[in-house]
């Protein structure tokens, strides 16, 4: 049953294990995907790994760790993989999708903060904010993220904390209203801008990001 907008936006208690699935788009992440899936499943029992045409054992490693695997026949890009995952979990009647990358850079220990943000603020989209500790990022990545975040703040007409983080929690009823077309990494920007311009509530929570040494 579809709920009125006013009801959707109110703070609420959510049965996350029943109403939320994790969606992890992956391309050639066999080395680390098992650890990511195992850690996420401590918080959410349903983990969907979208294997975006990998040429390694990403799908097999994810499946052996308890994830459901959607296999795309060829590499189509992160945006296309996220769309496939969101369509799948929407058809399964989940209300929320948690997205994170398959390379282990997002710490699943931060997942409860996303849930708490929805329950206390009524957010429609919660995005991880890595820029509170931007000095920990590799130099080029830090420069690009800060530049893009300033640019996206201008496009959104409001300050945004971290426009490029792929660690997100989205209300699927809101996502279904938007025509997201990006196939590649620009999906992060399109996702944010269209949520804000549609008047949906977007919040940010600080997250730890784990970069390889």
Structure notes:
It contains nine helices and seven strands. A seven-stranded mixed beta sheet has the order 3-2-1-4-6-5-7, sandwiched between helices. It is α/β, with parallel strands linked by helices and 213 residues long. Helix 4 links the parallel strand 2 and strand 3 (68-72). The chain has helices spanning 5-8, 16-19, 33-40, 58-64, 78-91, 111-121, 139-156, 172-175, 187-197, and strands at 20-26, 47-52, 68-72, 96-99, 125-129, 168-171, 202-206.
Write the layout of secondary structure elements.
Blueprint: H1 5-8, H2 16-19, E1 20-26, H3 33-40, E2 47-52, H4 58-64, E3 68-72, H5 78-91, E4 96-99, H6 111-121, E5 125-129, H7 139-156, E6 168-171, H8 172-175, H9 187-197, E7 202-206
Parallel strand pairs: 1-2, 1-4, 2-3, 5-7
Antiparallel strand pairs: 4-6, 5-6
